[in-house]
Amino acid sequence: MRMGDDRVLIVYGGRFGQSEKIASAMRATLTEKGLPSDLVPLTPKTAPDPSTHSALLLVTSVRYGHFDRNAYRLLERNRTWLENHPTQLVTVSLTARKPEKRDPQEHSYTRKFLAKSGWKGSVAVVAGSLLYPQYNIFDRLVIQFIMRITDGPTDPSQTIEYTDWEQVEKVATNFADTILSGNPGR
Fold it and tell me: Which residue of 39, 40, 149, 180 shows the fewest CB atoms closer than 10 Å?
């Protein structure tokens, strides 16, 4: 992809806004590198437009150990296109608040997604945010239980952003460099 040609499709999926915030920050980095982009939510119909897009950045959260089924749909419906263009997956996960869980090979949910989906592009895992005051009672109780067994905070009044913004910028920069070099990133 040459600068000024085509666009990067940036897709974000999540329930509480952190994936969109991360995707927006990555978009800013791509823009600084001269790469125009479209930022869209992950829906059942999300797909790259082959006449417009030359790369895909998928930023999606893990919820209770599972990726959004729309991420799988996106991959299934567009497999041929995805295998021939630069792609970057960014998993957003509270478990990645621990640095060792930011390694895609150590992050069990990402490993399962890669095995099940057949994703071929680059992969990164970044920490999300803990937003107890925004959660409904069910989500709060489940997340408190998960935090209890993983030695995390359980105070329901807490809001903690674990996202490492330097990591986010580095992932976006590396992806931009991949696109600009013409390497599909595999």
Answer: 149
